Amino acid sequence: MARNVMNDETHRGEERIKSYSKKLEDDLKKLGCKIKHHEDNQTFLKEHINDLNDSIIDMQGILGNYHSSSESKVRSQNLNHAQTEQNAIEQILRQEKTAAGIFCQLKIRNVTQGSRLTKDVLGVIATLGSVEDNNLSRLFSEYLGLEAMMAIVCKSYVGVQALEMYDKEGQIDKNAGLHGLGPSIGRPMDGRFLVICLEDLRPYAGDFVAGDPKKSLALHNPRLPNGERPPGFLGFAVNMINVENMYLSCVTASGHGLRETLFYNLFSRLQVYSTRADMERAIPCISDGAISLDGGIMKSAGVFFLGSSKDIDVRFPVSSGISNIPVDITEIEEKLRHINWEKEMIVEDMKREEALLQHAKKNFELKKDEFMGFLKETSSHVPQNQV
Fold first, then answer.
1. Please, are residues 137 and 316 in contact by the beta-carbon 8 Å criterion?
2. What pLDDT sits at residue 54?
3. Separation of alpha carbons 165 and 159, rounded Å
4. Which of 98, 149, 158, 252 has the fewest CB atoms lying closer than 10 Å?
5. How far apart are CA 321 and CA 225, in angstroms?
């Protein structure tokens, strides 16, 4: 009887050993499959990056040949815009003890610390767009106000964090960020400043105007109660801002450009009219404000700015807004931006896959050590139990 009990216990012990051994083997197989899955993903992503690199080289070659053959012509066309942009920067630099002034000074001096600090920063709003004439420049700048015109724009929250840091008590660290760099270039900073984080803005969700290289937003034109278009309506302010080609798309991680993020959030559906009288007649179909070329400003439905206009020193640069670049070259530049953006996203995917692969390999080694230890332990006990 005692021998039967011992045999039963031995049998149950052997079954437990086999069961646990099988579980460890299955765990190792699963981890092995995970490792192969991440390795396959990395191989696929590497091949995709290689294909993109080939396309990038081809497009860069085409663009290089075009720009080298028309370099002097392009320089001549862009001279006026460059001069007015320089004027905008000079006006920003005149604003003492401001974050925008420090940022522009850092860019001009190409300070090494500043370049690291502002890696995620696009620039100051006043330098990120242009308009077609001085009157629009004055009106748009007055509508937004000086604080907004001098706001610093970051792609992501990483840039916001780099601009200003805090100590353990939550107080501003005067030795870090713009607060620390300002005094080092003779521009101490004082007061608050506005920073806009593009990735946190809700972008325009509609379509773009088909075939428009400026990627204007396809906003519905206002209609009076009788269904007619209001007299004197010239368009929407957001579409009257000229955005540099490099900022028309793929600025944010989700592929959006400045028009549908930054400028849409600044102007929304702000309407532009020829005269105050036109604007007043159109009140029934104005929802997000309006301005008129003769100085009328309506911030929103029922909210008017009256009195004499006030010049804002910091304005948008003025340019013709006309591009003589052939359509096929513009399309190639757009495709190149998308490919570079896609490559950046894949590189991030590669980093995640590498982290997951290393984690899976670590778990595999731990499970392998556990399995080998278990085999060693059971091999020393099984013979004794079978005696």
1. yes
2. 74
3. 11
4. 158
5. 34
Q: What percent of the chain is predicted at pLDDT more than 90?
A: 27
**Ranges assigned E (strand) in 221-331:** 233-236, 271-273, 290-292, 297-300, 303-305
d(C-alpha 231, C-alpha 277), whole Å: 10
H/E element, 197: strand 195-197
Q: State how far the Cα of 196 lies from the Cα of 264, in Å rounded to an integer.
A: 13
CA gyration radius, the chain: 31
- The DSSP bridge partners found for residue 292 are 273
Q: Is 360 helix (H, G, I), strand (E, B) or coil?
A: helix
Q: Which of 22-36, 115-129, 243-257, 325-339 has the lowest mean pLDDT?
A: 325-339
123 is written with which tokens? 């620039």
Degrees to nearest 5, angle at CA 41 with 40 and 43: 65
Helices of type H across the chain: 2-69, 71-94, 99-109, 112-117, 134-144, 146-149, 157-163, 177-184, 237-240, 264-267, 276-281, 327-386
Under 8 Å CB-to-CB from 296, ≥6 apart: which residues?
A: 273, 275, 276, 279, 280, 290
Residue 231 phi, psi (nearest 5): -60, 140
